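Worked example 2:
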Amino acid sequence: MTRGQYILFLAVVFFGNAMGATLGGLLFQTSSAGAEKAKGINAEEFLLLDQNGKARAGLGLDPQGEVGFILTSKDGSKKLALSPDEPLAIKLSDRSGRVLWSAP
């Protein structure tokens, strides 16, 4: 293959890929009830993991669709939970789930 043929091949592959991606996006467009934004990140859960892969903070939805934000201590002994959908909007609990402090 000559250099000119190789460049032509790369150009055809590049433009074919671009056209395929464009047409695929138009033909198979999916929507999640208008929740997507061009400059946003969409997810049902965000986790902050420590160096061992243990979740230390999380923002997400529970199975009932209620939102919550949870922070966990390094040793896992305490958990701070914030949820506007719960009767106690702010809750500090120990490992066993016993509430140490709360606020409406």
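Residues 40-103 form one domain. The two ends are 74 Å apart (CA to CA).
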